[in-house]
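Hi all, long-time lurker, first post. I run a small reading group and we've been trying to get comfortable going from sequence to structure in the token notation. Rather than ask abstract questions, I figured I'd post a concrete chain and ask someone more experienced to write out its structure so we can walk through it together at our next meeting. Sequence below, copied exactly:
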Amino acid sequence: MPLAKSNNKASLYLRALIRADFIYRSEGIIYQYRQVSVTLMFSGQNYTSSSGANYYPAGGSGIYSANNRDSITFHDGNAWTANFDWNLILNGDYAYHYEGDSLVINKDITSLASYEYRIKKN
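-- Answer (accepted) --
Happy to help. Here is the structure in token form:
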């Protein structure tokens, strides 16, 4: 599994290259659902996320850290233009949990919008 949970500490063990699905959901005036494949690359405490068409997702790169047993923080180090939703950048605090053979990393901005990465066990 790309990220493995530890019973006694919030430890994240990452492989160098991970394929994941990025899922965006919005339930505002118009319901939106987008799912695309992305690549996440980890080296030590550094990360890089590939981007998708029209910034879904935007990608990101920088450093990350596990905060506790169920959250991870990504610190993106890039300069970005203002022509898209910056929540599409892999940046900030995310919750994570396991569903079957998948690790789910998600950020809920409001009750109407969520940004999620699903990493399936190889």
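A couple of things your group might point at:
The chain has one domain: 17-120.
The beta strands are 17-27, 31-43, 46-49, 60-66, 71-76, 92-99, 102-110, 113-120.
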